[in-house]
Amino acid sequence: MSGGCAFESMPNDWKKVLEDPVRVTLKDSGPPDLDKILRLFPRLTGEPAFDLEVIARNSQRLRTTPEVDTGHPLLDRSVKTGLACIDTTFQGDHPKYGVDAYAKGEHDSFPPTIIAAVDALSAWGLHARAAQLFRYWLLNFVREDGTINYYGASISEYGQLLHTAALLEERGGIEDWWREACPPLNRLAEHLLSLRAQAEKDGGLIPGSPEADESDQVAKYFHNNACAAKGLRRWADLCERRGATPSTSIHATRSRAAALAKDTLDAIQTVWPQDPGDMWLPPQVEPTERPHAITATRLASYTNYRYWPELLSSGLLPPDMANRLVEARLHFGGQFCGMTRFRDWLDDWPLAEYLHGLWSLGRRNDFLLSLYGHIAYHQAEGHLTAYEQVTFPPGEAVAPYCLPCQLVAARAARLLA
Question: Of 355, 356, 320, 359, which is closest to residue 338 (Cα–Cα)?
Fold first, then answer.
């Protein structure tokens, strides 16, 4: 790499450092600059997930609103590549999480795939395609009892799907999707409400799977309940705007969402340590092992890479608690060059949730560092394929390409437009 590596003396220490070494070095240099970040380390290398000519043609056909013009050509390319990969990854309207092992049918109904795709498409004005894909997913993967036909759906994903419906309606209206989508959405909401009713007998928080890989680790997770409360509130607001009559009244749903949000926040305040210097902010009500760093245990790594970001993006936390969560990630071994650390590698597919939280808090510099770090070192040089997991620089793939990781730039960059 021309110009050499700015951190040539540090490679053996990266995994041991608790503070992001790039953030520490750049903190007095003003807003992060993508060109400067690109010169720090060797770029990620690997094989493209798809035929580059197909991606190029899909990119050229895009007609976004607004036009993709972020002020940096690489960021523009990252946005367009992500949007182009949606139709390349999906089989028609049928979702696929990624390639190779991630193209197996068992992953097709993974909710974050459709959540990411609808968010990215609708953010850039591609409402018709977003609605088409969302309707297909709801009609094919929501069972009659309101459960998701997926082996490890988390409670948070139910709430996120309801939020996605409200987001799509706000951005693009209801043409061509609301009539058919309303019944399965209603079933999703009713399932959450029934879980909440059962949980009220034991403290109020819904126990459940926190994410697919940890589906056997059932507990009362804060991110699950925060997203469920947000989703139910958003569902009530959506039904009110559309004049719909859901199975549970709008007033009752809104009231129960507020009660769940209060119970969740009360539980967090009880469980989180009072010492503001204590970096371990447990993700659940039940007692947990205290790690010496946020990637030191399996639970800690999952907390850092997904549970904290989803709690942050739910909007439940007041600013002081939300900022405390961010500071814990920043000073407890949670990131490298803005990217998310997971054990001894990097895993950014849920990064859009963290970026949304940073933006909401007005933490623009931290937002830019994470976005630019992702573009520079979680997407392969040249073709920009985003693998689900990568090594520290000099980077290579640890797990295959997946669509939610590819869409991080498209979802986050819209906030800058």
Answer: 355
